[in-house]
Every structure is written in structure tokens, then in C-alpha cells.
UniProtKB/TrEMBL annotation:
<dbReference type="InterPro" id="IPR050695">
    <property type="entry name" value="N-acetylmuramoyl_amidase_3"/>
</dbReference>
<comment type="similarity">
    <text>Belongs to the N-acetylmuramoyl-L-alanine amidase 3 family.</text>
</comment>
<feature type="region of interest" description="Disordered">
    <location>
        <begin position="127"/>
        <end position="173"/>
    </location>
</feature>
<dbReference type="Pfam" id="PF11741">
    <property type="entry name" value="AMIN"/>
</dbReference>
<dbReference type="GO" id="GO:0008745">
    <property type="term" value="F:N-acetylmuramoyl-L-alanine amidase activity"/>
</dbReference>
<dbReference type="Pfam" id="PF01520">
    <property type="entry name" value="Amidase_3"/>
</dbReference>
<keyword id="KW-0961">Cell wall biogenesis/degradation</keyword>
<keyword id="KW-0378">Hydrolase</keyword>
<protein>
    <recommendedName>
        <fullName>N-acetylmuramoyl-L-alanine amidase AmiC</fullName>
        <ecNumber>3.5.1.28</ecNumber>
    </recommendedName>
</protein>
<dbReference type="InterPro" id="IPR018392">
    <property type="entry name" value="LysM"/>
</dbReference>
<keyword id="KW-0574">Periplasm</keyword>
<dbReference type="InterPro" id="IPR002508">
    <property type="entry name" value="MurNAc-LAA_cat"/>
</dbReference>
<dbReference type="Pfam" id="PF01476">
    <property type="entry name" value="LysM"/>
</dbReference>
<feature type="compositionally biased region" description="Polar residues">
    <location>
        <begin position="151"/>
        <end position="160"/>
    </location>
</feature>
<dbReference type="GO" id="GO:0030288">
    <property type="term" value="C:outer membrane-bounded periplasmic space"/>
</dbReference>
<dbReference type="GO" id="GO:0009253">
    <property type="term" value="P:peptidoglycan catabolic process"/>
</dbReference>
<dbReference type="InterPro" id="IPR021731">
    <property type="entry name" value="AMIN_dom"/>
</dbReference>
Length: 463
């Protein structure tokens, strides 16, 4: 007995020494997701489980204690109502997350990286509710009635094909146009780099890349919302981190036609300046700067974390998928038009599209480009990046490039493929513009026309 007591006494200081400390708990919240990050003094054994009525998620950490009080507010999370903790006699620290809705939790550990310690990340995703869709699929059947005796005059803002179909119908009948006849929108996935845990690069004045790129992304999204036949999907809408593979998956879920990742990175040399456009290269980087930047971008995985369960078969598909060649060509062409647009805004870092191994560009079937809008490490460019006006100019340049590409390469089932006009004798450019209710400038831009000269038989794309 004596020996046992002696043994236990020896064990106590060992246990006290081995205790893991939770040094901080941080909360990042988005629309449907909330992320908890626990900063730890050492790796920890843990388990996570859910409880219902009321909805709770419990995190048990073995041999752990809290050194900081838990955050008192839930950081505007729509999911997380509160946090509480209890020390169990078994040395387990129990953290209870009180939820407003049912949610599922995924947890994973991160090793120390740069100024980050060991971390345990718990991602909460709301369940039992369909993800909100901005443009729900239209299921309502629309009905157009043509009045008897109507002269069927061409409506000025209708596509020619549509007019033709209506004309062929006998008068005084009802035409039922099913929603599926509607051309689909071109979906542009806009990926504001970094976020949450991962601030991205930081300028000499302290400007964080994650903030300026989100502002530019939001401006681009607003432009795309107003653009006929196009629809933006924001990969991240607030200040939270999304894993690089998750960004790709998100774009794929929305069936994106283009993935555009927006960044503003730092370089070792403060004088480095200008914007660059990158596409994926599996073989190697096109320059030292390209290699350096790709390395930095991919570091996000260590800072913001990647759930290892999400890795795997997608990567295998990337290497095997035969569609990669055409995706690569499309990426290069879009990158070219984007670079041309950016040249009008200011300095470009390189006259050509750059190649590097950015993980976020590895979609096998979605053309993907990454824009380094500027070097945040350059004091002049840092100031520009903070300016609303400059952010807007960058967004304008991007939408011009996107527009130019998709008008030149209209996808078959989209709105853009439907609006074309074949020049007849007597047509003028301004007459055509008026007929389709578009501005002369939009018409010139969509067709890459400098002046007003058109020829009989020319096919004009109507924006
Ligand atoms: Zn970046």
C-alpha cells in the first residue's frame, strides 16, 4: 500500500507538468459556418460529439487546462450562442458550445507554424437547412400571351432566335416557355485569398492582404451581378479561412465556368511592383518570383489549416483527368485577356502570363487564374490597394477581361451564345446597338471594334 501511495505521489508532479494549456480560443464566423481555433501549448488528445435539445457540441480535451477565460461573446456567429467550460476530475477539460441550430462538427489538429502554436480547429457547419441559394433554379413555368391581331413587332430587347420562334407560332395562341429553355448563367467563382487565421501578406503600413482582396472581390461580384448572363459566386464572403481544396470544391459545387483567385502579395524586394496573372504549372515556375509567390500562397495550408480528410481523390483526378489540357488552354486565354485589362489600370509586373504551382488553381475542369493585383510590400502599391477608387478600377479591368473572353468563346447553353446579329445591308453599328438596347460602347467592346465600320455578313455579339 505504501508503495502505491509513493507511486501516486510521484505521478502527480509529472501529470501537472504534462498538462496541456489552452492559451487562447478564437472564433471566426461566416454565414453557415463557424470555426473555433484553440491555441495549445502541446498536441492534445481530444474527442468531439454532439448533443440535442438544446443543440450542443462538446469538446473533451485530455489532460488539459484553460489558462485564459473563454471568449464571452460569440463573435456574431449565427450558430454559436455561447461557450462554457468545466474541469473534470479526470483531468479532462470539457468545452461546451451552445448552438442555436443543429450542426455537425469536424475537428483537426495543426502543428506549430511560424508564430502559431499547436492548434485544434473545430469547424461547425449548420445542418438540417439547405444552403441558401442566391439564384434558385427557376421551376415556375412562364407564360407569354400574344394578343390576337398583334403585329408581333420585334421587341427591341429580345434575342433574334426568340423572336423567330414566337413569330412562327400561330397568332392568338399561348406559348408556354418552360424554365429549362432559359439559357443558364455563366458562373464566375471569385476567390478572395486568405482570410480569418491567415491574414496573407502585410504591407509596411500594416494593411492586410485578406482585407483588400475581399474588398476587390466584392466590387467584382457587384459588377457581375449587373452583367447579363453572368452570375458571381463568392468563395468567401467574410473574414474566415477556407482551405485551398475547399475553395476548389466550392467552385465545383456551383458548377463554376471560371475560378478567379484574387491576391496582393509581398515580395522580398520592397520595390517589386505591378500586377501579374498566374495559371497553374505542374512542371515548374516561370520565374523566381513566381516560385516564391506560389510557395507563399500554398503556405496558407499551414496557417489556416487543411482538413486532411478533404484531400485525396481530387488530387489524383487532377493528375489523370484528360480534360486538363483544354482547361489549361482556356485558363491561359482568360489570363491573357485579364492581363491586357490590368495593363490599362497601371503597371504590370510581367508582360506575360506567369506559371507556377499554386494549389488553389488545381481544378481539373474549371479554367482557373490567380491575379496578384499588386505588391502590398511596395509602399506606393499598398496605398493604392487601400483606395476604393483603385479597387474599383481593378474590378473593372477584371470584368472587362471576363466579358471579352466569354463573348469571344460563348458557352453553348448560355445567354451569351444566343445573342448574335448578322449584319444586313443598311445596318449601322449605332442602329444595331439601339435595336438591342445596348450602348454603342458595350457593342464595340464585346466585338473588339475600334471604330464603327461593319460589313454585310459580319456576326456581331450582342452584349
Ligand atoms: Zn495571397
Amino acid at each position: 500500500m505504501k508503495r502505491i501511495i509513493y507511486f501516486l505521489l510521484c505521478l502527480v508532479p509529472v501529470l501537472a507538468f504534462a498538462r496541456v494549456q489552452v492559451q487562447d480560443v478564437r472564433v471566426w464566423s461566416a454565414e453557415e459556418k463557424t470555426r473555433l481555433v484553440l491555441d495549445l501549448s502541446a498536441p492534445v488528445q481530444h474527442r468531439v460529439f454532439t448533443l440535442a435539445s438544446p443543440h450542443r457540441i462538446v469538446i473533451d480535451l485530455a489532460n488539459t487546462r484553460l489558462t485564459q477565460p473563454l471568449p464571452s461573446n460569440s463573435h456574431n456567429s449565427k450558430l454559436l450562442r455561447g461557450l462554457r467550460s468545466a474541469n473534470k476530475s479526470t483531468g479532462i477539460l470539457r468545452i461546451v458550445l451552445e448552438l442555436s441550430h443543429a450542426a455537425r462538427a469536424k475537428s483537426f489538429s495543426l502543428k506549430p507554424y511560424k508564430n502559431h502554436s499547436h492548434r485544434l480547429v473545430v469547424d461547425l457547419t449548420r445542418t438540417g437547412k439547405k444552403k441558401s441559394q442566391k439564384n434558385p433554379v427557376q421551376t415556375v413555368t412562364t407564360t407569354h400571351k400574344i394578343k390576337a391581331g398583334s403585329d408581333n413587332k420585334t421587341p427591341t430587347n429580345s434575342a433574334p432566335q426568340r423572336v423567330k420562334r414566337e413569330k412562327n407560332q400561330p397568332k392568338s395562341t399561348t406559348i408556354v416557355a418552360a424554365a429549362r429553355d432559359k439559357p443558364r448563367d455563366i458562373v464566375i467563382a471569385i476567390d478572395a485569398g486568405h482570410g480569418g487565421e491567415d491574414p496573407g501578406a502585410i504591407g509596411p503600413q500594416g494593411t492586410q492582404e485578406k482585407q483588400v482582396v475581399l474588398a476587390i472581390a466584392q466590387k467584382l461580384a457587384r459588377l457581375l451581378e449587373r452583367e447579363p448572363g453572368m452570375r458571381p459566386v463568392m468563395i468567401r464572403t467574410g473574414d474566415y479561412y477556407v482551405g485551398l481544396r475547399e475553395r476548389i470544391n466550392e467552385a465545383r459545387q456551383h458548377k463554376a465556368d471560371l475560378f478567379i483567385s484574387i491576391h496582393a502579395d509581398a515580395f522580398t524586394h520592397p520595390k517589386a511592383r505591378g500586377s501579374s496573372v498566374y495559371i497553374l504549372s505542374e512542371k515548374g515556375a516561370s520565374s523566381e518570383a513566381a516560385r516564391y509567390l506560389a510557395q507563399r500562397e500554398n503556405e496558407s495550408e499551414f496557417i489556416g489549416g487543411v482538413n486532411l480528410n478533404e484531400k485525396g481523390d481530387l488530387l489524383a483526378r487532377v493528375l489523370l483527368d484528360l480534360s486538363q489540357t483544354s482547361t489549361h488552354e482556356a485558363s491561359l486565354e482568360i489570363a491573357d485577356t485579364l492581363l491586357a485589362g490590368l495593363k490599362n489600370v497601371g503597371q504590370v509586373h510581367s508582360q506575360h502570363v506567369q506559371h507556377a504551382g499554386f494549389a488553389v488553381l488545381k481544378s481539373p475542369d474549371i479554367p482557373s487564374v490567380l491575379i496578384e493585383t499588386a505588391f502590398i510590400s511596395n509602399p506606393h502599391e499598398e496605398r493604392q490597394l487601400r483606395s476604393q477608387h483603385h479597387q474599383q478600377q481593378l474590378a473593372n479591368a477584371m470584368i472587362n477581361g471576363i466579358r471579352y473572353y466569354f463573348y469571344s468563346n460563348p458557352l453553348p447553353d448560355t445567354f451569351l451564345a444566343q445573342r448574335r446579329h448578322i449584319i444586313n445591308r443598311g445596318d449601322t453599328l449605332s442602329g444595331v446597338a439601339q435595336h438591342y438596347d445596348v450602348s454603342l460602347n458595350q457593342l464595340r467592346l464585346a466585338n473588339d471594334l475600334k471604330g464603327d465600320r461593319i460589313q454585310v455578313g459580319d456576326i456581331l455579339l450582342i452584349p
